[in-house]
Amino acid sequence: MNKTELHDMILHENNTVEVIRQALIMEEPLSIRIDGNAYSVVMRTPGDEIYHAAGFCLAEGIVDHPDDFATIGFCTEEGVNVVTATLTSERRNRVEHLLGRRGFISQTSCGICGKELVKDLYQIVRPVSQTFNIPIATAMACVDRLVEQQHLFSKTGSTHASMIFDSENSVMAYAEDVGRHNALDKAIGRVFMNRKINEANIAALSSRISYELVQKAARAGIEMMVSMSRPTALAVTLAKSLNMTLACVGRRRGFMIFCGKER
To answer: Catalytic site residues?
Structure first.
């Protein structure tokens, strides 16, 4: 599956001008349908559609377990980018209020303050347990391993990446996408559908940590998030309330821990 396209680019460098072929990341819509109804359309890099939709549904509280899906499939017909999921009748009855809401819990709502947003998120998110501790050097190494795998970024310079680790620092999943939310959904979705979500403990991210990413990680039971960029204030507020650890690798100031230093 092609994830990049070649386009002509005029490069002006060192007082010279030349036309070169540049790889650009692809961006296409993916429609996620649940029980026959359109639920979301996301712009993403093609690939890992089932994992993407599964991770998205977990983050939204639509499913808690792979068995909550009666079926989930991706239409492979050319030009049709649709993942269709059906829920078991028991699960559908439990999340009917979520399926009927306008807008998603993972998206910022206009006119809602931080405290109200965190309260809203508590409909589907609960604090995580503290089950492990790791050396700072090990946490920093997670980011290094993420960077080593960013092959699409090396080609295009315009992707985000997420990598999931277990408590032994073994890689469980990796995803790269034009969108940071998509990359995390894809990585979490892979672990989730492989029925190993209870082993996921650390998420390494190429992007800043926003509150939506904290929500996604918390829904997966991930205790620690380590990034290449600093988190937002709301992300730290939410992570503190969910007993999570947020940290990032600073360019000049070493390793910065914003909450959850106990781990």
So the answer is: 110
